[in-house]
Amino acid sequence: MLSPRTTPTRDLVGLDGLWRFALGTRAGATPWASRLAPPLEVPVPASYNDLFVDPEIRDHVGVVWYQRDVRVPRGWTGERVILRFGSVTHAAQVYVDQRLVAEHTGGYTPFEADLTGVVEPGAEFRLTVGVDNRLTNVTIPPGTVTTGPDGRERQSYLHDFYNYAGIARPVRLYSTPTTFVEDVTVVTGRDGTAGTVQYRVEADGEHADTVTVRVRAVDESGRTVAEGHGPEGVLRIEDVTLWQPGAAYLYDLVVELTVDGETVDSYTQPFGVRTVLVRGTDFLINGEPFYFTGFGKHEDTPVRGKGHDDAYLVHDFQLMEWTGANSFRTSHYPYAEEVLDFADRHGIVVIDETAAVGLNLGVQGGLTGVPPTPTFAPENFGGTTRDVHAQHLRELIERDRNHPSVVMWCLANEPASNEDGARDYFEPLVELARKLDPTRPLTYAAVMFATPQNDQIGDLFDVLSINRYYGWYLFTGDLATAEGYLEQDLRGWVQRFGKPVMMSEYGADTQPGLHSVWDTPWSEEYQSDFLAMYHRVFDRIPEFVGEHVWNFADFQTSPGIHRVDGNKKGVFTRDRKPKSAASALRRRWHGLDGRKPGEATAD
């Protein structure tokens, strides 16, 4: 799915701003039929949960309604009119006046509605969106909805971040010609000092069968460096400038459709020339070993929840650069397209993850003491859930496959890969991912319960990403014992699978301002000592290829006795103030500069 852009043949109107808002329980039977009442307003993009003081809104389970009036530009006569949502968490019904024009399930990928013939240029229409925040055993991520004695629905889920909901990413109305570029795929490679650009263009619409396709690769100075004709082919860019971690360089692929010599549509797809390969126990970018330094993150900020915010986007990337981070994982869902565009432009490496978090009933059993039922049983996360997971994977790869910053797909976070049924669940998903994109390696983030001895899926993947909390959840406050168990664990993964290993999560909750001269959990000193212990172990394992601290910043979780105002494992507070560990990471990572510890040079 192409990202909407203004081009010589396309126009774009943003629909962000204040929309009318109502809970489904207060909006009447057909809220799309008239103006919403009562007159609450919400900003788009933003999650709605933290905006109001009314606890019924924050705790609401079910549908809420968004509404605004939209005027179609009068200059769009004879054009297609497309409505695009960056995401709606977790399911959406979209009405234009009283007509249902789109439905979508999946809270972190975009969807569109073709309004051609439904709305008229120059005219106004009422846009109403029903947003359903419910998670079940057939959603990704999964959850459970129960009904209490008072008749009110209650939501529970297995992931450790707050179930923010709403229209969290930009909404846009855009136009295209009636013959248009439907899709563009770019795959890059190297041939000596030249870059190769394999492209495929899909056209659709009125003259799609007779259209002529012309493409040009344009460098950052605006110079055309390669040209091609036809819906697919390979361009060659001599003396190519590579896209590299920390040194981004982007070309534009300008795609033009012509009919009888006249241009009918034009679309520009940015791309970077780079290669990614796993060879032995090395992760290679452009043929050179790459060592990941960075974070698991969250789309999470005060008041906005998961709402995309450009100010936080810029500031977060500045803080990552300050620490020396060269990468991050989109834990635990695809981030906004704007985030990946920014990473493309600034040379930050991304592990792009699906929203498959919580596929592990053993975690719930560990927290409650109740023996878990099999995770992959049909009544839990069996075949139907996998089908939903597969569709989410398709939408993720379709959206993000042209981003040079994305170097690996992560299919799930902490699944029950140690349980029977895991292989039957994941093997078809791995096959699907490789079919959709054979150019990028695959990984998953392994939970503590999955060990080198009992994991059932590690051989299916290219890189082993391990989440571990020795010294926090296990051997709390005893870093000496934790160090021995950590090293034994990681060496076991290397010995069994012979693949690159990285730490996709490690960290300790830390209360900012709490200090101690002893190994006191929750203190800033303990967080720094905890990370330093892990780094000593990483540096002793030659097959190790990266470290992603959990977490970049503190984030909100569901309320309960296990969390006090959220998860505090961030090296920055939720409002982005540094804890002591941030400076410790800065000293380490600037010394590594993207190389394995044994290859690094001193400051």
What do these coordinates show?
This protein has 603 residues and is of the alpha/beta class. It folds into four domains: 12-176, Jelly Rolls, CATH 2.60.120.260; 179-271, Immunoglobulins (Immunoglobulin-like); 295-321 and 468-603, TIM Barrel (Alpha-Beta Barrel), CATH 3.20.20.80; 326-460, TIM Barrel, CATH 3.20.20. Helices cover 19% and strands 31% of the residues. The chain is built from nine helices and 30 strands. Strands 23-24-25-26-27-28-29-30 form an eight-stranded parallel β-barrel, surrounded by five helices. A six-stranded antiparallel sheet has the order 3-2-4-9-6-7, with no helix packed on it. A four-stranded antiparallel sheet has the order 1-12-5-8, with no helix packed on it. β15 (212-218) and β16 form a beta hairpin. α5 (383-400) runs parallel beside α6 and α7 (479-497) runs parallel beside α8. The protein is globular and about 70 Å long. The model has no long low-confidence stretch (mean pLDDT 94).
Give a short synopsis of this structure.
With 603 residues, the protein is α/β, with parallel strands linked by helices.
Distance between the termini: 44 Å
The tally of strands reads 30
For the report, how would you describe the main beta sheet?
8 strands, parallel, barrel
| CATH architecture grouping of the largest domain | Sandwich
CATH topology category name of the largest domain: Jelly Rolls
Uncertain runs are none
- Helix content percent band: 10-25%
Question: Roughly what fraction of the amino acids lie in strands?
Answer: 25-35%
User: What is the CATH first-level class name of the largest domain?
Assistant: Mainly Beta
**Gyration radius, to the nearest Å?**
25 Å
Global shape? globular
